[in-house]
Amino acid sequence: MTNLMGQGKTASKLVEFGMLQNIAEDDSQHKNDYKTLFQGQGKILLALSDNDNMSQKALAERVNMTPQSMAEFVRKLEKRGLVSRKKSSTDKRVIIVSLTEEGRLETEKRTQVIPKYLRVLNDEELNQFNKILDKINQQMYLDIKDADPTLHNKYHKLMLNHVLTKIHTDETKS
Amino acid sequence: MTNLMGQGKTASKLVEFGMLQNIAEDDSQHKNDYKTLFQGQGKILLALSDNDNMSQKALAERVNMTPQSMAEFVRKLEKRGLVSRKKSSTDKRVIIVSLTEEGRLETEKRTQVIPKYLRVLNDEELNQFNKILDKINQQMYLDIKDADPTLHNKYHKLMLNHVLTKIHTDETKS
DNA sequence: TTATATAATCAGGTGTACCTGACGATTTAG
DNA sequence: CTAAATCGTCAGGTACACCTGATTATATAA
User: Which chain B residues contact residue A138 at CB under 8 A?
Assistant: First the structure.
């Protein structure tokens, strides 16, 4: 099982990678906390980046949490000036949440960070890495779908497209 | 700046990768919570895997937290049966913390998990991935050292060696 | 031997991500 | 038009990773 051995090696390197990411964050002034990017308030910002002006209910469903939690986080985000809440005119029960300009910038900043360590890779390696990540990510989408089709729909492949496309574009420009 | 563009692409794929890891965890029965592997109790287990029988004080320094926090976490780990605490015979003030057999197994289990998604990579890709991760990890060690030499010493490259070597060995056997 | 340092503990936070239950304000369906 | 469904809020809670300050043993140095 040569392949299994290779996988094990890679797995341990990934663990190491995870550990290092963590340490690097603990340390120093990084505000782009990798850990919180995909949880709570960060998760909501990402969802809004993909699809703005959602009701709290829809948002809650989208990111798989209770409406109460969503209300709490949205309120916190509002306090931070990253989202705004306005009553829907068609249905006075619902509240439409949208990113403020600041929120949009903040989210972009957080997802656009190019980790310093990538600079050690040359073009060929970056290319290889991209292909590998593509394969892995694609497989993870499938695994998630396998485990829970509903979840998969919510976090559909398109979720990050908005943000990610922007990154590519911006990068291309520079 | 072709290279910068490549880096941006890779960066976004890494963000996506992180997001997917997170979703996959939320979902389903994974107990090997990637998020907690390097924090709090998990961090301590890792430190002990590398260097067992440390005093609480030494442990606290090693993982960069206050002795009070350490005391709390160690107590929790003891309750879970993963570590044992015994008074040092030479210095009755200090408490020596060590992994129980269960703790050792648990830690190995948590670090040994081979993510399912790796199976989509062929031998060549695994090889490339390994090389890339090696380069990246090495660079991250340097970056951490750069930012804080003390921290670097504590989380020295050797930290995970113990655990990781075991993984390699076990994998080789299978 | 007495003052001081040191390891740990107790007590009491803080912040963040969640959750459940109860309830008020609308909207919609019968 | 009234009852049920729907969206959101309020109140209160849990769990986990931390932290500061004060205090108790024990060890060491003057």
Answer: 120
